[in-house]
Amino acid sequence: MRYVVTSRNAAAESVYGLVRAVLGGEIPLRIRCWDGSEAGPPDAPVRLVLRRRRALRRLVWAPNELGIARCFVSGDLDVESDFFESLSHLERVVGSQSGTLDVDGAVKWDVIKTGLRLRAFGLPPKPPAEEIRLGGRLHSKRRDAEAISHHYDVGNDFYALVLGPSMTYSCAVWGEGVTSLEEAQTAKVDLVARKLGLREGMRVLDVGCGWGTFVIHAAREYGARAVGVTLSQAQADFARKRVAEEGLSDLVEIRVQDYRDVRDGPYDAISSIGMAEHVGQSMLPTYAKALYDLLKPEGRLLNHAISRKAGVPGRTTDKTSFINRYVFPDGELEPVSVMAGAIEEAGFEIRDVEALREHYALTLRAWVANLEEHWQDAVRLTSEGRARVWRLYMAASALTFERGSIGVNQVLAVKTSDKGKSGFPRTRTALLS
User: Fold this and answer.
1) How does pLDDT run across 205-253, given as a tens digit for each residue?
2) Which residues of 341-362 are buried (b: 16+ CB within 10 A; e: fewer)?
3) Is 292 inside any structural domain?
4) Do residues 113 and 184 share a domain?
5) What does the alpha-carbon distance between residue 276 and residue 288 come to, in Å, rounded to a whole number?
6) What is the per-residue pLDDT across 129-154, written as a single tens digit (0 to 9) for each?
7) Domain residues for 102?
8) 247: Cβ–Cβ under 8 A, 6 or more apart, which residues?
9) For a FRET experiment, which of 74, 313, 361, 414 has its CA 20 to 30 Å from that of 428?
Protein backbone atom coordinates (compact mmCIF):
# COMPACT_ATOMS: atom_id res chain seq x y z
CA MET A 1 0.00 0.00 0.00
CA ARG A 2 1.49 3.39 -1.00
CA TYR A 3 1.55 6.28 1.42
CA VAL A 4 2.19 10.01 1.32
CA VAL A 5 4.63 12.00 3.46
CA THR A 6 4.15 15.75 3.58
CA SER A 7 7.77 16.47 4.54
CA ARG A 8 10.83 14.26 4.34
CA ASN A 9 12.00 15.24 7.84
CA ALA A 10 8.57 15.56 9.45
CA ALA A 11 7.60 13.67 12.60
CA ALA A 12 4.77 11.75 10.94
CA GLU A 13 7.14 9.96 8.54
CA SER A 14 9.22 8.57 11.39
CA VAL A 15 6.21 7.65 13.53
CA TYR A 16 4.41 6.03 10.61
CA GLY A 17 7.39 3.87 9.71
CA LEU A 18 7.88 2.89 13.32
CA VAL A 19 4.23 1.91 13.84
CA ARG A 20 4.28 -0.26 10.73
CA ALA A 21 7.50 -1.92 11.86
CA VAL A 22 6.18 -2.66 15.35
CA LEU A 23 2.76 -3.87 14.17
CA GLY A 24 4.01 -5.75 11.15
CA GLY A 25 2.62 -3.29 8.59
CA GLU A 26 -0.86 -4.79 8.83
CA ILE A 27 -2.87 -1.70 9.81
CA PRO A 28 -4.13 0.62 7.02
CA LEU A 29 -3.20 3.78 8.87
CA ARG A 30 -2.76 7.50 8.41
CA ILE A 31 -1.02 9.56 11.08
CA ARG A 32 -0.97 13.29 11.77
CA CYS A 33 1.54 14.62 14.29
CA TRP A 34 1.87 17.62 16.56
CA ASP A 35 3.90 19.49 13.93
CA GLY A 36 1.13 19.23 11.34
CA SER A 37 2.90 16.59 9.26
CA GLU A 38 0.96 13.60 7.93
CA ALA A 39 1.90 10.19 6.61
CA GLY A 40 0.00 7.19 5.33
CA PRO A 41 -2.65 6.51 2.69
CA PRO A 42 -5.06 9.47 2.46
CA ASP A 43 -8.01 7.05 2.32
CA ALA A 44 -6.84 4.83 5.20
CA PRO A 45 -9.76 3.69 7.41
CA VAL A 46 -7.72 4.36 10.57
CA ARG A 47 -6.67 7.98 11.12
CA LEU A 48 -4.73 8.75 14.29
CA VAL A 49 -3.62 12.12 15.58
CA LEU A 50 -0.65 12.47 17.93
CA ARG A 51 -1.44 15.87 19.40
CA ARG A 52 1.62 16.03 21.63
CA ARG A 53 5.15 14.66 21.53
CA ARG A 54 4.39 13.41 25.06
CA ALA A 55 2.45 10.51 23.51
CA LEU A 56 5.72 8.94 22.41
CA ARG A 57 7.18 9.24 25.89
CA ARG A 58 4.12 7.52 27.32
CA LEU A 59 4.62 4.62 24.91
CA VAL A 60 8.36 4.42 25.59
CA TRP A 61 7.67 3.93 29.30
CA ALA A 62 4.63 1.68 28.80
CA PRO A 63 4.81 -0.05 25.38
CA ASN A 64 1.57 -1.89 26.00
CA GLU A 65 -2.19 -1.54 26.34
CA LEU A 66 -1.79 0.74 29.36
CA GLY A 67 0.50 3.14 27.49
CA ILE A 68 -1.93 3.41 24.59
CA ALA A 69 -4.81 4.00 27.03
CA ARG A 70 -2.87 6.76 28.79
CA CYS A 71 -2.25 8.45 25.44
CA PHE A 72 -5.94 8.36 24.54
CA VAL A 73 -7.35 9.28 27.97
CA SER A 74 -4.97 12.24 28.30
CA GLY A 75 -5.83 13.50 24.81
CA ASP A 76 -2.25 13.04 23.58
CA LEU A 77 -3.65 10.59 21.03
CA ASP A 78 -6.93 10.95 19.18
CA VAL A 79 -8.92 8.94 16.65
CA GLU A 80 -10.50 10.88 13.79
CA SER A 81 -11.86 7.89 11.86
CA ASP A 82 -14.84 5.71 12.76
CA PHE A 83 -14.13 4.70 16.35
CA PHE A 84 -15.38 1.11 16.15
CA GLU A 85 -13.67 0.41 12.84
CA SER A 86 -10.44 1.93 14.08
CA LEU A 87 -10.45 -0.15 17.26
CA SER A 88 -11.22 -3.24 15.23
CA HIS A 89 -8.11 -2.65 13.10
CA LEU A 90 -6.05 -1.81 16.18
CA GLU A 91 -7.16 -4.83 18.20
CA ARG A 92 -3.65 -6.28 18.09
CA VAL A 93 -2.74 -3.42 20.42
CA VAL A 94 -5.89 -2.41 22.27
CA GLY A 95 -7.23 -5.95 22.66
CA SER A 96 -3.92 -7.79 22.78
CA GLN A 97 -3.90 -10.83 25.05
CA SER A 98 -0.25 -10.36 25.95
CA GLY A 99 -0.69 -6.68 26.71
CA THR A 100 2.88 -5.81 25.65
CA LEU A 101 4.16 -5.06 22.15
CA ASP A 102 6.34 -7.98 21.11
CA VAL A 103 9.13 -6.84 18.77
CA ASP A 104 12.52 -8.25 17.80
CA GLY A 105 15.91 -6.72 18.48
CA ALA A 106 16.21 -4.88 15.17
CA VAL A 107 12.86 -3.18 15.63
CA LYS A 108 13.75 -2.25 19.20
CA TRP A 109 16.89 -0.55 17.89
CA ASP A 110 14.77 1.33 15.35
CA VAL A 111 12.49 2.42 18.20
CA ILE A 112 15.47 3.78 20.12
CA LYS A 113 16.86 5.66 17.11
CA THR A 114 13.48 7.12 16.22
CA GLY A 115 12.84 8.09 19.81
CA LEU A 116 16.16 9.93 19.98
CA ARG A 117 15.48 11.73 16.72
CA LEU A 118 12.01 12.82 17.90
CA ARG A 119 13.19 13.68 21.43
CA ALA A 120 10.76 11.14 22.88
CA PHE A 121 12.92 10.07 25.80
CA GLY A 122 12.76 11.59 29.27
CA LEU A 123 11.08 11.05 32.60
CA PRO A 124 7.76 9.15 32.47
CA PRO A 125 4.78 11.52 32.14
CA LYS A 126 2.35 11.57 35.04
CA PRO A 127 -0.60 9.21 34.36
CA PRO A 128 -3.99 10.83 33.72
CA ALA A 129 -5.95 11.72 36.85
CA GLU A 130 -8.56 9.08 35.98
CA GLU A 131 -6.09 6.23 36.60
CA ILE A 132 -6.24 4.43 39.94
CA ARG A 133 -4.05 1.96 41.84
CA LEU A 134 -5.65 0.49 44.93
CA GLY A 135 -3.85 -0.45 48.13
CA GLY A 136 -4.59 -2.93 50.86
CA ARG A 137 -5.57 -6.60 50.77
CA LEU A 138 -7.21 -7.73 47.54
CA HIS A 139 -11.01 -8.08 47.93
CA SER A 140 -11.05 -6.88 51.51
CA LYS A 141 -14.28 -5.03 52.30
CA ARG A 142 -12.49 -1.68 52.40
CA ARG A 143 -10.67 -2.20 49.10
CA ASP A 144 -13.80 -3.53 47.38
CA ALA A 145 -15.71 -0.45 48.53
CA GLU A 146 -12.97 1.80 47.13
CA ALA A 147 -13.00 -0.06 43.81
CA ILE A 148 -16.76 0.27 43.51
CA SER A 149 -16.64 3.95 44.38
CA HIS A 150 -14.03 4.58 41.68
CA HIS A 151 -16.29 3.13 39.03
CA TYR A 152 -19.80 4.07 40.12
CA ASP A 153 -19.48 7.32 42.06
CA VAL A 154 -18.63 9.45 39.02
CA GLY A 155 -22.01 11.14 38.96
CA ASN A 156 -25.55 9.87 38.49
CA ASP A 157 -26.18 12.53 35.84
CA PHE A 158 -23.25 11.20 33.79
CA TYR A 159 -24.60 7.66 33.97
CA ALA A 160 -28.05 8.89 32.99
CA LEU A 161 -26.59 10.25 29.75
CA VAL A 162 -24.95 6.93 28.95
CA LEU A 163 -27.48 4.40 30.23
CA GLY A 164 -30.68 6.21 29.34
CA PRO A 165 -33.90 6.33 31.41
CA SER A 166 -33.65 2.72 32.64
CA MET A 167 -30.40 3.46 34.55
CA THR A 168 -29.49 -0.18 34.08
CA TYR A 169 -25.79 -0.98 33.83
CA SER A 170 -25.77 -4.56 32.58
CA CYS A 171 -26.57 -6.51 29.43
CA ALA A 172 -30.02 -5.83 28.00
CA VAL A 173 -32.09 -8.47 26.19
CA TRP A 174 -32.88 -7.59 22.57
CA GLY A 175 -35.75 -9.90 21.72
CA GLU A 176 -37.80 -9.95 18.54
CA GLY A 177 -39.40 -6.58 17.92
CA VAL A 178 -37.29 -4.78 20.54
CA THR A 179 -35.80 -1.64 19.02
CA SER A 180 -34.88 0.65 21.92
CA LEU A 181 -32.42 0.32 24.78
CA GLU A 182 -35.19 1.07 27.27
CA GLU A 183 -37.36 -1.79 25.94
CA ALA A 184 -34.38 -4.15 25.98
CA GLN A 185 -33.51 -3.34 29.59
CA THR A 186 -37.13 -3.78 30.68
CA ALA A 187 -37.10 -7.16 28.91
CA LYS A 188 -33.95 -8.13 30.84
CA VAL A 189 -35.24 -7.33 34.32
CA ASP A 190 -38.53 -9.04 33.53
CA LEU A 191 -36.66 -12.13 32.29
CA VAL A 192 -34.84 -12.26 35.63
CA ALA A 193 -38.08 -11.85 37.55
CA ARG A 194 -39.74 -14.69 35.62
CA LYS A 195 -36.76 -17.00 36.06
CA LEU A 196 -36.88 -16.33 39.79
CA GLY A 197 -40.61 -17.12 39.81
CA LEU A 198 -41.49 -13.89 41.61
CA ARG A 199 -44.98 -13.57 43.04
CA GLU A 200 -46.76 -11.13 45.29
CA GLY A 201 -45.45 -11.11 48.83
CA MET A 202 -42.18 -12.91 48.05
CA ARG A 203 -39.02 -11.51 49.60
CA VAL A 204 -36.21 -10.89 47.09
CA LEU A 205 -32.63 -9.69 47.58
CA ASP A 206 -30.79 -7.92 44.75
CA VAL A 207 -27.02 -8.06 45.33
CA GLY A 208 -25.34 -5.12 43.62
CA CYS A 209 -28.64 -3.36 42.97
CA GLY A 210 -27.18 -0.40 41.08
CA TRP A 211 -29.69 2.41 40.66
CA GLY A 212 -32.58 0.20 41.73
CA THR A 213 -34.11 -0.82 38.40
CA PHE A 214 -34.66 -4.50 39.21
CA VAL A 215 -35.99 -4.06 42.74
CA ILE A 216 -38.43 -1.41 41.51
CA HIS A 217 -39.61 -3.74 38.70
CA ALA A 218 -39.96 -6.67 41.12
CA ALA A 219 -42.09 -4.61 43.50
CA ARG A 220 -44.18 -2.70 40.95
CA GLU A 221 -44.88 -5.54 38.51
CA TYR A 222 -44.89 -8.57 40.82
CA GLY A 223 -45.72 -7.21 44.28
CA ALA A 224 -42.48 -8.58 45.73
CA ARG A 225 -40.85 -7.13 48.85
CA ALA A 226 -37.36 -6.24 47.67
CA VAL A 227 -34.06 -5.37 49.33
CA GLY A 228 -31.27 -3.94 47.19
CA VAL A 229 -27.67 -3.66 48.42
CA THR A 230 -24.84 -1.67 46.85
CA LEU A 231 -21.45 -0.34 47.94
CA SER A 232 -22.01 2.92 46.08
CA GLN A 233 -23.51 5.76 48.10
CA ALA A 234 -24.33 7.66 44.91
CA GLN A 235 -26.28 4.70 43.55
CA ALA A 236 -28.14 4.21 46.82
CA ASP A 237 -29.17 7.87 47.00
CA PHE A 238 -30.47 7.76 43.44
CA ALA A 239 -32.27 4.43 43.93
CA ARG A 240 -34.02 5.60 47.11
CA LYS A 241 -35.27 8.70 45.32
CA ARG A 242 -36.63 6.55 42.47
CA VAL A 243 -38.34 4.19 44.93
CA ALA A 244 -40.04 7.10 46.67
CA GLU A 245 -41.16 8.64 43.38
CA GLU A 246 -42.68 5.29 42.37
CA GLY A 247 -44.58 5.12 45.67
CA LEU A 248 -42.87 1.84 46.55
CA SER A 249 -41.16 2.73 49.82
CA ASP A 250 -43.30 0.21 51.68
CA LEU A 251 -42.04 -2.61 49.42
CA VAL A 252 -38.43 -1.65 48.58
CA GLU A 253 -35.44 -1.03 50.83
CA ILE A 254 -32.06 0.19 49.52
CA ARG A 255 -28.94 -0.32 51.63
CA VAL A 256 -25.26 0.60 51.35
CA GLN A 257 -24.02 -2.81 52.42
CA ASP A 258 -21.49 -5.49 51.48
CA TYR A 259 -23.09 -8.80 50.49
CA ARG A 260 -20.98 -10.42 53.23
CA ASP A 261 -22.79 -8.33 55.83
CA VAL A 262 -26.39 -9.21 54.87
CA ARG A 263 -27.79 -11.16 57.83
CA ASP A 264 -31.58 -10.84 57.57
CA GLY A 265 -32.43 -13.94 55.57
CA PRO A 266 -34.11 -16.07 54.60
CA TYR A 267 -35.15 -14.71 51.21
CA ASP A 268 -37.40 -16.40 48.66
CA ALA A 269 -35.16 -15.35 45.77
CA ILE A 270 -31.83 -13.63 45.11
CA SER A 271 -30.67 -11.82 41.99
CA SER A 272 -27.08 -10.83 41.25
CA ILE A 273 -26.97 -8.91 37.98
CA GLY A 274 -23.55 -7.74 36.83
CA MET A 275 -22.06 -7.85 40.32
CA ALA A 276 -20.12 -11.15 40.48
CA GLU A 277 -17.37 -9.72 38.24
CA HIS A 278 -16.26 -7.67 41.26
CA VAL A 279 -16.06 -10.66 43.62
CA GLY A 280 -12.80 -12.28 42.46
CA GLN A 281 -12.12 -15.99 41.98
CA SER A 282 -10.63 -16.44 45.43
CA MET A 283 -13.85 -15.08 46.96
CA LEU A 284 -16.33 -17.02 44.82
CA PRO A 285 -16.81 -19.78 47.45
CA THR A 286 -17.53 -17.13 50.08
CA TYR A 287 -19.89 -15.31 47.71
CA ALA A 288 -21.84 -18.40 46.70
CA LYS A 289 -22.08 -19.76 50.25
CA ALA A 290 -23.29 -16.40 51.60
CA LEU A 291 -26.12 -16.33 49.05
CA TYR A 292 -26.96 -19.98 49.68
CA ASP A 293 -27.29 -19.34 53.42
CA LEU A 294 -29.64 -16.38 52.79
CA LEU A 295 -32.16 -18.43 50.79
CA LYS A 296 -35.15 -20.46 51.90
CA PRO A 297 -35.39 -24.09 50.75
CA GLU A 298 -36.65 -24.05 47.13
CA GLY A 299 -35.39 -20.48 46.86
CA ARG A 300 -33.80 -19.47 43.57
CA LEU A 301 -30.60 -17.61 42.68
CA LEU A 302 -30.12 -15.82 39.34
CA ASN A 303 -26.44 -15.02 38.76
CA HIS A 304 -25.88 -12.79 35.70
CA ALA A 305 -22.17 -12.28 34.99
CA ILE A 306 -19.62 -11.65 32.25
CA SER A 307 -17.32 -14.60 31.57
CA ARG A 308 -14.07 -15.30 29.76
CA LYS A 309 -13.26 -18.40 27.77
CA ALA A 310 -11.82 -21.34 29.65
CA GLY A 311 -8.08 -21.53 29.20
CA VAL A 312 -7.72 -17.82 28.41
CA PRO A 313 -5.91 -15.94 31.20
CA GLY A 314 -7.86 -13.21 32.94
CA ARG A 315 -6.58 -9.71 32.18
CA THR A 316 -8.50 -7.44 34.52
CA THR A 317 -6.04 -7.75 37.42
CA ASP A 318 -3.01 -7.39 35.13
CA LYS A 319 -1.03 -4.27 36.06
CA THR A 320 -0.84 -3.31 32.34
CA SER A 321 -4.60 -3.66 31.82
CA PHE A 322 -6.58 -0.57 30.84
CA ILE A 323 -9.70 -2.09 32.41
CA ASN A 324 -7.97 -2.62 35.76
CA ARG A 325 -6.40 0.83 35.99
CA TYR A 326 -9.27 2.90 34.64
CA VAL A 327 -12.57 1.01 34.66
CA PHE A 328 -13.02 -1.99 36.97
CA PRO A 329 -10.11 -2.10 39.44
CA ASP A 330 -9.76 -5.61 40.91
CA GLY A 331 -12.49 -6.96 38.63
CA GLU A 332 -12.05 -10.57 37.54
CA LEU A 333 -13.77 -12.52 34.79
CA GLU A 334 -14.09 -16.26 35.22
CA PRO A 335 -15.20 -18.98 32.79
CA VAL A 336 -18.84 -19.89 33.22
CA SER A 337 -17.67 -23.35 34.32
CA VAL A 338 -15.77 -21.78 37.25
CA MET A 339 -18.75 -19.65 38.25
CA ALA A 340 -21.15 -22.59 37.96
CA GLY A 341 -18.73 -24.80 39.90
CA ALA A 342 -18.60 -22.34 42.80
CA ILE A 343 -22.39 -22.13 42.85
CA GLU A 344 -22.73 -25.92 42.88
CA GLU A 345 -20.07 -26.39 45.54
CA ALA A 346 -21.99 -24.02 47.81
CA GLY A 347 -24.91 -26.48 47.70
CA PHE A 348 -27.03 -25.12 44.85
CA GLU A 349 -28.52 -27.18 42.05
CA ILE A 350 -28.11 -25.48 38.67
CA ARG A 351 -31.30 -25.59 36.63
CA ASP A 352 -30.67 -23.32 33.65
CA VAL A 353 -27.84 -21.47 31.89
CA GLU A 354 -28.47 -18.90 29.16
CA ALA A 355 -25.78 -17.15 27.11
CA LEU A 356 -26.46 -13.53 26.09
CA ARG A 357 -23.15 -12.57 24.44
CA GLU A 358 -24.56 -10.93 21.31
CA HIS A 359 -27.05 -8.99 23.42
CA TYR A 360 -24.23 -7.30 25.33
CA ALA A 361 -22.55 -6.15 22.13
CA LEU A 362 -25.79 -4.43 21.11
CA THR A 363 -26.16 -2.91 24.58
CA LEU A 364 -22.64 -1.49 24.55
CA ARG A 365 -23.09 0.02 21.11
CA ALA A 366 -26.25 1.73 22.35
CA TRP A 367 -24.35 3.14 25.33
CA VAL A 368 -21.56 4.43 23.09
CA ALA A 369 -24.14 6.11 20.86
CA ASN A 370 -25.66 7.81 23.91
CA LEU A 371 -22.26 9.01 25.08
CA GLU A 372 -21.26 10.37 21.68
CA GLU A 373 -24.62 12.11 21.25
CA HIS A 374 -24.24 13.85 24.62
CA TRP A 375 -20.44 14.24 24.55
CA GLN A 376 -20.20 17.86 25.66
CA ASP A 377 -22.59 17.28 28.56
CA ALA A 378 -20.64 14.16 29.60
CA VAL A 379 -17.38 16.13 29.66
CA ARG A 380 -19.02 18.92 31.65
CA LEU A 381 -20.42 16.49 34.23
CA THR A 382 -17.15 14.59 34.79
CA SER A 383 -14.01 15.37 32.81
CA GLU A 384 -12.84 14.90 29.25
CA GLY A 385 -10.53 12.15 30.46
CA ARG A 386 -13.37 10.29 32.18
CA ALA A 387 -15.58 10.55 29.10
CA ARG A 388 -12.67 9.21 27.02
CA VAL A 389 -12.25 6.29 29.43
CA TRP A 390 -15.89 5.29 29.01
CA ARG A 391 -15.84 5.68 25.24
CA LEU A 392 -12.76 3.48 24.86
CA TYR A 393 -13.92 0.91 27.39
CA MET A 394 -17.44 0.49 26.00
CA ALA A 395 -16.45 0.47 22.32
CA ALA A 396 -13.59 -1.97 22.86
CA SER A 397 -15.85 -4.18 25.00
CA ALA A 398 -18.52 -4.26 22.28
CA LEU A 399 -15.94 -5.53 19.80
CA THR A 400 -14.68 -8.09 22.30
CA PHE A 401 -18.18 -9.49 22.77
CA GLU A 402 -18.73 -9.53 19.01
CA ARG A 403 -15.51 -11.50 18.50
CA GLY A 404 -16.58 -14.00 21.13
CA SER A 405 -13.54 -13.37 23.33
CA ILE A 406 -15.82 -12.86 26.33
CA GLY A 407 -19.43 -13.74 27.03
CA VAL A 408 -22.20 -13.11 29.54
CA ASN A 409 -24.39 -15.77 31.12
CA GLN A 410 -27.40 -16.10 33.38
CA VAL A 411 -27.02 -19.08 35.70
CA LEU A 412 -30.24 -20.03 37.45
CA ALA A 413 -29.87 -22.22 40.53
CA VAL A 414 -32.03 -23.46 43.39
CA LYS A 415 -31.51 -24.38 47.03
CA THR A 416 -33.32 -27.69 47.11
CA SER A 417 -35.21 -28.82 50.22
CA ASP A 418 -33.98 -31.62 52.47
CA LYS A 419 -36.15 -33.97 50.42
CA GLY A 420 -34.67 -32.75 47.13
CA LYS A 421 -37.64 -30.66 46.11
CA SER A 422 -36.84 -27.73 43.80
CA GLY A 423 -40.24 -26.18 43.15
CA PHE A 424 -39.34 -25.89 39.45
CA PRO A 425 -41.79 -26.61 36.64
CA ARG A 426 -41.00 -29.55 34.41
CA THR A 427 -40.24 -27.53 31.27
CA ARG A 428 -38.26 -24.42 30.43
CA THR A 429 -41.29 -23.07 28.59
CA ALA A 430 -43.31 -23.22 31.81
CA LEU A 431 -40.41 -21.61 33.70
CA LEU A 432 -40.51 -18.51 31.50
CA SER A 433 -44.28 -18.23 31.15
Assistant:
1) 999 999 999 999 999 999 999 999 999 999 999 999 999 999 999 999 9
2) bbbeebebeebbebebbebbbb
3) yes
4) no
5) 10
6) 888 887 888 888 888 878 777 777 67
7) 4-117
8) none
9) 361
